[in-house]
Amino acid sequence: MSKEKIETIGDMLSHFSKACPDAEAAVQGDIRLSYSQLKAEVDVISKALMAAGVGVGDRVGIMAPSGLDFYFTYLATVAIGGIWFGLNPRYQEPEYKYLLHDTRPKILFTVSPFEGRDYATVLQNAGLSETQYFVYGTPTKSARSYESFLEKAASISDAQLLARQAQVQAEDIAAIVYTSGSTGEPKGAMLSHRAIVQSAIANAKWMEGGPHKALCCLPINHVASLNNLCMNVMAGGGCMVFHAVFDLAAIMTITQSEKLTYMLTSPTLLMMLLGYDGFNLEALQSLRLIVFGGAVTPEDLIRQYQPIGAKLSTIYGLSETCGIISHSALDADLDIMANTIGTPIEGAEWRICAADGNIVGVDEVGELQIKGPHILSGYFNKPEASAEAMTDDGFFKTGDLCKLRDDGNVEFSGRLKEMFKSGAYNVYPLEVEQAIESHEQVAMAVVIGIADDLYQEVGFAFIKPKPGQDISIADLKDFLRTQIANYKIPKQFRLVDDFPTLPNTKVDKKALKKILEESNG
Q: Whole-prediction pTM value?
């Protein structure tokens, strides 16, 4: 990227529409748009948003699968100072109602019907009388067509659009990304233009092999889609390819046909691809960078992707950090890629602190805290939670347990809230999972804490065997006695064919807990 001052997301799109107007920017099916064409599409939608009364700070939401509709509304909303948020098609009515009453959008777009569900009606059932609903598809009740929305764009002049765009500042909130709500109700992380732009530029710098071309088939409400893919790729002048649903066959086909260069994955997705009947490494030969995060990735799993020849890197990030905030070096060895979250991206700093706030030493477990321009501006409508999330000197408290290694990389030890106390001992599920996965017959393990009359809490391990392996739990226990302390060994084990996953391909631990509750009920 040139030295031109880029402070907002609109600045970034304008920059590339001038610097490389004919370069491919976005693809969906047969639709292929250059940067100049993308900018033109976005400008029309920005005008229509202004005509519909969207002002600086107003929220604009969209319920849609991954695709150009999401990308257009996001870029158009933030370009005029609006605040964008996405909704997941998998949500149910109570979830939509909570999020919509929290954000109270000026405009809500929806694809409807989608996969047989009437979203236009479902979303209006939230009861927001002042929200304008526009539908890609079939309007119901008081909703109107997307075409009728676009018609109003002609009432806004180029001069009016430019004047509004000039009002947008780096500290203005661009997007609200809701956390999963694993503890209590969801919290909306407010991400400013400054945070998103600085994060994207810092990540584009280390993502070797750009400008990149990447596939987005993940839910649009997730920071992985918005920042780890779309914004990081744009910051390098690359191209996003959109596909509506997560589908292993499509991932393989599109990677090969579009000659993708960058793949964002998780250990679960890497494992799913290996187990897919149509998997072959040749289809992935165009990839120059494969990143994986969300959980520790076993060395054996990484090793199976090395023949592709792409650079491999483990990553770590949160909604509150605009996604990727750390990565392993592109020449890192297997140990670092499998067992650490690397080092911070440019401009970020971190530290590991004990419960009393003091920084711990090397190889001591504490909470990871992060500071930098990439951090959220707070949680929407939650001033108390916003204050609690930050230290007095401006570090964000991640709630993740980590430890610093003597080589400068940081190891992830688990979520602070996932740690459980067995008797008088702290047990970190991730450490136990890694011990189980070191057994030659185990493909993957997930450990959760469950109530116990004697020890207060004990571990319950879900284990997925490697293909063709018949695991003996007794033998596995004997093996674990040679790997970890006895109090860390789970008291119960269950073999599974697969794990329930979240839309972002991470293992859904809440679903596993629910399975246990139902089986014990």
A: 0.86
Contact 246, 505 (CB under 8 A): yes
User: Which of 87, 25, 370, 58 shows the shortest CA–CA distance to 212?
Assistant: 25
Helix (H) or strand (E) holding 13: helix 9-19
Strands (E) in 98-147, as ranges, are: 107-112, 132-137, 144-145
H helices of 279-404, where? Answer: 299-303, 334-339, 383-388
- Before 429, cis peptide (omega within 30)? no
User: What are the pLDDT digits (tens) for 15-73?
Assistant: 999 999 999 999 999 999 999 999 999 999 999 999 999 999 999 999 999 999 999 99
Q: How many CB atoms lie within 10 A of CB 451?
A: 10
pLDDT band at residue 92 using 50, 70 and 90 as cut-offs:
confident
94-151, pLDDT tens digit by residue?
A: 889 999 999 999 999 999 999 999 999 999 999 999 999 999 999 999 999 999 999 9
180-204 residue pLDDT tens:
644 467 899 999 999 999 999 999 9
Cis ω for the linkage preceding 211 (within 30 of 0): yes
CB neighbour burial string for 344-366, b if at least 16 within 10 angstroms, e if fewer:
bbeebebbbbeeeeeebeeeebb
Q: Which of 284, 267, 224, 182 is nearest to 66 (CA)?
A: 224
| Residue linked to tokens 């970190």 | 428
Q: Copy the structure tokens of residue 394.
A: 């401006």
Amino acid 223 reads: V
**Residue 3 DSSP code:** S
pLDDT > 90 fraction of the chain, expressed in percent and rounded: 82
Residues 6+ apart with CB under 8 A from 482: none
3-state secondary structure 151-217: HHHHHCCHHHHHHHHHHCCCCCEEEEEECCCCCCCCCEEEEEHHHHHHHHHHHHHHCCCCCCEEEEC
Classify the phi-psi angles of 363: left when phi > 0, otherwise alpha if psi is within -120 to 50, otherwise beta. left
Q: Which of 9, 24, 157, 156 is nearest to 83 (CA)?
A: 9
